[in-house]
UniProtKB/TrEMBL annotation:
Domain of life: Eukaryota
Record-given protein name: Helicase ATP-binding domain-containing protein
SUPFAM superfamilies listed in its UniProt record: P-loop containing nucleoside triphosphate hydrolases (SSF52540)
Domain Helicase ATP-binding: 35-209
InterPro entries reported for this sequence: DEAD/DEAH_box_helicase_dom, Helicase_ATP-bd, P-loop_NTPase
First and last residue of the signal peptide: none
Molecular-function annotations in GO: ATP binding; nucleic acid binding
């Protein structure tokens, strides 16, 4: 009779196997439920909060499979492949690097592939025989390299010697957002699934932010999940330990001064900032450096690691160093207090000591918002209240309310792009519960860790900015001296304007070239003379004072 892992006997066997591993681990109840369903060959879709240990589903699964293959007496009726391999698809390279910590996997992405080429190694050839875990991304999973690998793994001569025993997709929610815009490879994951055999190959899908309704159904349809052929674990994605604050952005988003962010340096709390674009990230970085330098006029260069950037324009070595600095405590000499990152830092990257997450710019959807706010308080410090601070303009608030009104009345126009409606409601927590169908309370976990340190409970009264006044220092709009606008008769002609743009662009290059390399080696030319300033100079050329 076939052994059923999702019965109490299977739960006990998994616990016994994990106790004998080099690093004993007791899984949470919801992890144990999902792992045993996967061992029974059932597709698994798990939706649990950020920082709840979704990576453990993959690690524990392959540990149990390898233990049973090594010692068949543990489960004589199990039919796992003799050389099992776990194929893990991650949306970003930082997530792959983080999952690789503590393991000996084979990570295949653009960065590791280039490094292997310098060593004259072929990672895809190595993947055919050596590793038990292969980490890759959607951009690699549709390449001809993987197609060749799959053909070699499933050749008729040795159909059971190297069968991938599991397909996993960590952080599956970008299939809807990124896959529809700039990462078209995400939409090919269903075709990758079709190339793998069904035996011992159900999906393990994990995310913290998959809204009910159309977003959830879209992912299921793309990956071939139908009612009855998958097991769903949905816990509340609410983070009671994170206070959600929506604040007005007074400074222009295209400017280079952001006094709203001065509190970050004053309070000295570990912070991660998510600007909407790399250009905005550079301008925020420059402003914070100027503000920090003004406080230390005697120092030529302030602490070099206090404020750092993380984006694809940096060297890989610099980004790797930044990820390592994020692990340091505030008492360390190499403590990085502020990191300014892009979307690649918002998916699955653990930043244990971060206590504040600051978002600036347009919010695409609530998934993006919650993922970024979920980067804080990953260590679950007892009694600590982390903050998720979102800066939006008054115009964005009005457009969000407009989107809510049109959704209620059904007056939305086809193709019209409006901001995310989660900005408009007064109580942000209630709106999140509605969008994600969060239960009022999750079933208590009986593991030793949760028994000793229970998860944070919801406060008696909601503490979001819509329910209580925000406790951030108010910022007054900067007074600007009004200047007379140039009369049409004194405006520059098209030829004069083109000449002026050319001269100012040359000036920008000259300023950038003579700038102190020690201070400004990372700064782009745009920081020294922005396009907005060039436009303003030419618009008011005849009324300039100096």
């Amino acid at each position: 009779q076939k052994f059923v892992w999702s019965f109490p006997e299977g739960y006990s066997l998994v616990r016994r196997i994990l106790e004998s591993t080099p690093v004993p681990y007791e899984p949470h109840d919801y992890q144990l439920e999902g792992i045993c369903k996967s061992l029974d060959g059932v597709n698994l879709f798990t939706i649990t909060p950020t920082g709840s240990g979704k990576t453990s589903y993959y690690i524990i699964y392959i540990l149990v499979v390898l233990a049973v293959v090594t010692d068949p007496s543990l489960c004589p009726t199990a039919t796992f492949p003799s050389n099992s391999c776990l194929l893990v698809i991650c949306p970003t390279i930082p997530l792959q690097m983080e999952m690789a910590l503590g393991l000996n996997p084979l990570a295949i992405n653009s960065q590791t592939r280039d490094e292997a080429r310098q060593r004259h190694e072929d990672l895809w050839m190595l993947a055919r025989t050596k590793p038990n875990v292969i980490l890759t991304g959607p951009d690699m999973a549709d390449k001809h390299f993987l197609k060749s690998l799959l053909r070699s793994l499933f050749c008729r001569k040795s159909p059971r010697t190297r069968v991938c025993s599991k397909r996993t997709f960590d952080k599956v929610h970008p299939l809807n957002s990124w896959g529809a815009s700039f990462r078209k490879d995400f939409g090919q994951m269903g075709f990758v699934k079709a190339r793998l055999p069904e035996k011992h190959n159900p999906w393990i899908l994990g995310s913290a932010t998959v809204r009910t309704g159309r977003p959830f159904n879209s992912i299921c349809q793309l990956l071939g999940l139908r009612d009855g052929n998958y097991h769903l674990i949905r816990c509340s994605c609410a983070r009671p330990d994170v206070q959600i604050l929506f604040c007005d952005l007074i400074s222009p988003i295209s400017g280079d001064s952001f006094p709203e962010l001065d509190f970050i340096l004053t309070e000295n709390r570990p912070t991660v900032i998510f600007p909407k674009s790399i250009s905005l990230a550079f301008r925020i970085y420059a402003y914070l450096l100027r503000t920090e330098a003004a406080k230390h006029p005697d120092k030529r260069v302030p602490c070099p690691n206090r404020i750092r950037m993380y984006n694809s324009l940096n060297f890989d070595s610099y980004n790797t160093e930044t990820r390592e600095l994020l692990k340091h405590d505030p008492t360390d000499d190499d403590y990085c207090q502020v990191v300014i990152g892009t979307d690649s830092l918002s998916v699955g990257v653990a930043m244990g000591v971060r206590m504040d997450a600051v978002l600036i710019g347009t919010i695409d959807d609530t998934d993006d918002l919650l993922q970024k706010l979920g980067r804080v308080n990953r260590t679950k410090l007892a009694g600590a209240i982390a903050r998720g601070i979102v800066y939006v303009s008054a115009a964005t608030r009005k457009l969000s309310q407009k989107a809510v009104d049109r959704e209620e009345t059904g007056a939305s126009k086809a193709g019209e792009v409006l901001p995310d409606i989660s900005i408009a409601p007064e109580c942000k927590v209630t709106e999140v519960d509605k969008l994600y169908d969060n239960p009022d309370s999750d079933t208590p976990c009986t593991c030793a860790k949760c028994s000793a340190l229970p998860p944070s409970l919801r406060p008696a009264a909601c503490n979001c900015s819509g329910c209580i006044p925000e406790n951030l220092p108010p910022i007054k709009a900067q007074a600007r001296r009004a200047k007379a606008k140039a009369k049409p008769s004194t405006c520059l002609s098209k030829i004069q304007r083109a000449h002026g743009v050319s001269r100012l662009l040359d000036l920008r290059i000259e300023i950038w070239q003579v700038a102190d390399q020690l201070k400004f080696w990372m700064f782009p030319r745009l920081v020294f003379l922005s396009d907005a300033l060039i436009t303003s100079i030419l618009d008011n050329f005849f009324v300039l004072d100096t």
